[in-house]
Amino acid sequence: MSEEQGPKKTRSFKLPPQLVNTGLVPLLAVLTSMVVGGLIIAAAGGNPFAAYAGLFEGAFGSLNALSETTVWASPYIFAGLAVAVGFKGGLFNIGAEGQLAFGAVAAAWIGYALPGMLGADIPAVLHVILAVGGGMLAGGIWAAIPGFLKAYTGGHEVINTIMMNYIALNLTSFLLNGPMKDPNPMNVVARTPLIVESAHLPPVFPEFRFHWGFILAIGMAVLVWWLLWKTTLGFEIRTTGANLDAARYAGVNVKRTIIVTMLFSGILAGMAGAIEVTALNYRHELGFAVGYGFDAIAIALLGKNHPAGVVLASLLFAAMRNGATRMQFLTQIPVDVISVIQALILLFVAADTVVRYIYRIRSRDERFSLTRGWGK
Amino acid sequence: MSKKLSLLLAVVLLASMALTACQPAASGDTKPDCSKAETFCVGLVTDVGKIDDKSFNQSTWEGVKQAEKDLGAVVQYIETTDSKDYDKNISTFAEAKYDVIVTVGFALGEATIAAAQKYPEVKFIGVDQFQGETIANLAGLNFPEDHAGFLVGALAAQMTKTGKLGAVLGTDAVPPVWRFGEGYRAGALYIKPDVEINVVYHNDVGFDKTFSDPEWGKTTAISMIDKGVDIVFGAGGKTGNGALLGAAEKGVYAIGVDTDQYFTVPEAQKVLLSSAMKLLTPGTFDLIKLAKDGKFPGGNYMGKAGYAPFHDVDSQVPAEVKAKMEEIAKALADGTLQTNVPPTKPQ
């Protein structure tokens, strides 16, 4: 034990502290989770190496596997960015799930019903923009409401976004079962009709499902980075998130910033839903895109709320979800193992003291709080 | 201390490596080659649910397992975790040159049709997927709901003490639901022509509500029971399950539907007399066998219906009733007994 006291030669190797926090710790968290997950697989009588090999093959083993990984990653990136933007502004947006659902419903409605209402075809490019834009707007407004409540009444956004989730998901269920239900007589499922061709966001290559939505998602990550770190608004968001009183003292319109942060967060979440409809499913159905808004919280945390981190974390989660099929096919190890590993990652990222302790990384004494308290 | 911990971690890691290295060759190495003509491979893709769901997925998988045992088939399943993976999961088997692919449930209908067209050399079995058009390499496994209804109707008529039977169903606009209801009526009248039957369809609401209204199912069942009904047949998703709960609350016999609901509605176990079952396991096995023998029927394939074991109330069912039930089941199966229920409701 005494060797702990003395200075060590091995410590001379030093990463810049910024990189330790945002890069090394999440990386080690993922690694540790894979090791623990491997132990669980071994304990259950499986071969962890075969399992991970299958997982890797399923996620990256062929062009089609790569394409499917991007298909999984697209909604994760949008929704992960949504949650990350909220965190940057000191707001915990648990409502991405509901905002995403509304984005999907709005995009689907614009996709299948608008041409009929206008009585004319809409040019393809314009129709896609309208559908995706409509989804963004729907998600944005839905998130701005708890933002407004936070800014003007002090109502906590954690509570309000959860409550708004219930409203959004039940309303979606009502709409898909009722007014927006596919009228095809063979249909007994709660789903909308197919959107018309002009509202399709096409695949990049016709033989794969890899679609422009993924490229758009990467573009949005760049845009979010630029907005947060290169604009006045971004500075205001980050300052408000770091210290509310300091921001107010510095002359930031805190109320406005809170609402804008939530609006922007909801726009991104709504986009996740809209892209799923316009680029992948061509309709919305109850049971589509379930849980992405909650996965997004883990992704934002793992990505340390940085757009680049969110993209990497999304790719990781997407690879795991996509590769799970191949893993189960090759080894018969239940896909639930993936959920266990993802939960472990979240655990190690959220409680990064554990990771720092295991790998002897010194804490920089920088605290990151998920959310603030009540009141103005 | 932390040094010790990381040492421990390293040891554990090494131990796990050694452990797995000692294991008999991983399944990856011994993977049978399904592209060979003599290797008969059957894959199953679940709907968004688990393989051991005690319902459709599990019963179908048991049919596939039987093919492993009786036909020497190589079997494998993939559990779907998200509906966007349907296509990918089906083609995982198709790309590995599986001979038969079973997809479970209505939700996979469209993905199965698309896959059947893309892989014409593979035989597809779509459980509970009615085929509008015939595709030579795709068989929709459907079931005679009227037989299932007839069986439990006959059972109810033998078990009732008040002479009053009830049925709480979803909308009769869906033909399978109507066939369950009419089969029940026919079966009860076959045993006891003077039995009083109260069949109620939830037609007063839209399609959205008719299968997902447990409250209505429960209150309807309870009001029937209050009027003297002592056996309630519930058929129609959550609405039917609500009726089972109503019967459980009142302490009268309940009859479930589709699979053995003893396992899916545990709250009603004490009073669950039986369930009007679609026999997924033999239906799936029969189709796999037909595929192996080169007699695969494209289009719609009619499976068989049955009734579930009596479970907790087994001791309350007299031996002569059990014998009579077996007799009826046999007669329905070989066609000597007809339910006389038309496939759809006459206009």
UniProtKB/TrEMBL annotation, chain A:
* GO cellular component terms, semicolon-separated: plasma membrane
Q: Its domain of life?
A: Bacteria
Pfam families linked: BPD_transp_2
User: Under the GO molecular function aspect, what terms does this record hold?
Assistant: transmembrane transporter activity
What keywords are annotated for this sequence in UniProt?
A: Cell membrane, Membrane, Transmembrane, Transmembrane helix
Q: Does the keyword Cell membrane apply?
A: yes
Q: Where in the cell is it found?
A: Cell membrane
Kindly give the membrane topology term recorded for this protein.
Multi-pass membrane protein
- From the record, give the transmembrane residue ranges: 20-45, 65-87, 99-118, 124-145, 157-176, 210-229, 258-280, 337-359
Q: What is this protein called?
A: ABC transporter permease
Automatic annotation (TrEMBL), chain B:
Domain ABC transporter substrate-binding protein PnrA-like, first and last residues per copy = 44-301
- Membrane topology type: Lipid-anchor
Q: Which CDD domains match?
A: PBP1_PrnA-like
Q: Where in the cell is it found?
A: Cell membrane
Where does this chain mainly localize?
membrane
Q: Which domain of life is it from?
A: Bacteria
Key word Cell membrane present: yes
Q: Please report which protein family the annotation says this sequence is part of.
A: Belongs to the BMP lipoprotein family.
For this entry, the protein name equals: Membrane protein
Naturally occurring in which organism (per UniProt): Levilinea saccharolytica
